[in-house]
């Protein structure tokens, strides 16, 4: 198959969506498919054999890390030259509209996928009154697609409830070769704990942004004075968080990647994740693959991953003491913590990227077959 992928988010940006897309593109290419990626300009011209078509854009005012790429006629020329069998738009926003437009113009089957729970983000930026309007816009866009993919059962239910049709689950995936328990090291513990490797080490990895609710970790540190917290990542909320955690044992470690990141996961005692806006929470699977027990909010797609009391603990996000109690319980018993490490790894091993991409390829083939009897633009007759 020849797949045109439209995404507002791609390398060099680093987040869970980019991680999923990178593994997906890699496995699609290895399976003999050809992928053309339309993404905001960022320097990459090629990834794992797939051409990256950079589209000029502008930073999102509320979230400068994200660029909104503007549709332009040259996209149509590139599509005609590539001759795709299908268009897949990821988190359709401004650039996604170009994918939607050309799928209609060129009579190509369209798949859309939902990865960022934008309606829930609005309240964190003082725009909660726009949530209903945003759902209507999302519904209008997604319902143009022959198939809408979500990465957790909670999001399948949420989108269906809001009138989005033809929704199904795109199973989770994690790189179990890159993230492994044996990468734990005392040197990494010393680094993350700022020279206190024998103290309980709590870890957060991800964007430093308001909707991640990282500030809700502070009561845990107050309740467990010996604990050290390492925040891995960066984002627009970094300076606010530095002020918030100024009187605690918190280390802002910045971005990590590759084996360094895997070692960070494996070296921590607990991964703390208070966010209530996750469509899946890929970073949780990465922590679990590295054998790091998780303490996370019972919200969104997280319960699809974390089995309470087995491979981590879930807490009620509306209970101010919920995260504190769960973390205290995890740290109180080394025997229980080691059992959770093993269980976390076993759960992650069930979800390789090859299986997730094979499922996606089957979805693509099904969508293409369902449109096979419809006329296609002469421009796309394959040689």
Layout: helices, strands, pairs:
Elements: E1 2-7, H1 16-30, E2 34-40, E3 46-47, E4 50-55, E5 57-60, E6 63-69, H2 73-82, E7 86-90, H3 94-105, E8 110-114, H4 118-121, H5 131-142, E9 147-150, H6 153-161, E10 167-169, H7 186-192, E11 201-205, H8 218-223, E12 228-232, H9 238-244, E13 250-254, H10 258-267, E14 270-273, H11 282-289, E15 294-297, E16 312-315, H12 322-332, H13 334-348, H14 353-370
Parallel strand pairs: 1-2, 1-7, 2-4, 7-8, 8-9, 9-10, 11-12, 11-14, 12-13, 14-15, 15-16
Antiparallel strand pairs: 3-4, 5-6
Structure description:
This protein has 383 residues and is α/β, with parallel strands linked by helices. The chain folds into two domains: 201 residues, 3-Layer(aba) Sandwich (Rossmann fold); 168 residues, Glycogen Phosphorylase B (Rossmann fold, 3-Layer(aba) Sandwich), CATH 3.40.50. 38% of the residues lie in helices and 20% in strands. It has 14 helices and 16 strands. The strands form three sheets. Strands 3-4-2-1-7-8-9-10 form an eight-stranded mixed β-sheet, with helices on both faces. Strands 13-12-11-14-15-16 form a six-stranded parallel β-sheet, sandwiched between helices. It has a two-stranded antiparallel sheet with strand order 5-6. A hairpin with a 2-residue loop joins β3 and β4. α1 crosses α14 and α11 crosses α13. The longest helix has 18 residues. It is globular, with a radius of gyration of 21 Å. The C terminus is likely disordered.
């Amino acid at each position: 198959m020849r797949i045109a992928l439209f995404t507002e988010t791609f390398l060099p940006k680093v987040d869970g969506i980019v991680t999923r897309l990178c593994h997906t593109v890699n496995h699609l290419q290895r399976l003999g498919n050809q992928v053309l990626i339309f993404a905001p300009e960022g320097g990459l011209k090629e990834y794992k054999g797939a051409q990256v078509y950079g589209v000029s854009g502008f930073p999102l005012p509320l979230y400068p890390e994200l660029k909104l790429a503007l549709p332009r006629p040259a996209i149509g020329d590139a599509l005609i030259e590539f001759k795709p069998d299908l268009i897949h738009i990821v988190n359709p926003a401004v650039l996604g509209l170009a994918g939607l437009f050309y799928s209609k113009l060129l009579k190509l089957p369209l798949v859309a996928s939902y990865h960022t729970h934008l309606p829930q983000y609005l309240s964190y930026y003082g725009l909660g009154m726009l949530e209903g309007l945003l759902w209507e816009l999302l519904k209008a866009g997604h319902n143009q697609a022959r198939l809408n993919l979500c990465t957790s059962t909670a999001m399948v239910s949420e989108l269906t409830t809001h009138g989005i049709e033809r929704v199904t689950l795109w199973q989770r995936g994690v790189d179990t070769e890159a993230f492994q328990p044996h990468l734990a090291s005392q040197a990494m513990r010393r680094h993350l704990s700022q020279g206190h490797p024998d103290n309980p080490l709590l870890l957060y990895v991800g964007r430093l942004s308001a909707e991640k609710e990282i500030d809700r970790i502070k009561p845990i540190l107050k309740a467990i004075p010996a604990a050290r917290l390492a925040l891995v990542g960066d984002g627009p909320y970094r300076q606010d968080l530095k002020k918030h955690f100024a009187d605690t044992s918190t280390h802002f470690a910045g971005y990590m990647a590759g084996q360094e990141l895997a070692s960070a996961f494996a070296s921590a005692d607990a991964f703390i994740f208070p966010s209530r806006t996750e469509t899946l929470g890929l970073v949780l699977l990465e922590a679990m693959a590295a054998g790091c027990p998780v303490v996370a909010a019972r919200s969104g797609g997280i319960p699809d991953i974390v089995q309470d009391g087995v491979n981590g603990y879930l807490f009620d996000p509306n209970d101010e003491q919920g995260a504190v109690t769960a973390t205290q319980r995890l740290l109180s018993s080394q025997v229980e913590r080691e059992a959770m490490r093993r269980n976390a790894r076993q759960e992650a091993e069930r979800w390789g990227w090859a299986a997730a991409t094979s499922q996606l390829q089957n979805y693509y083939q099904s969508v293409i077959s369902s449109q096979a009897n419809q006329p296609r633009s002469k421009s796309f007759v394959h040689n």
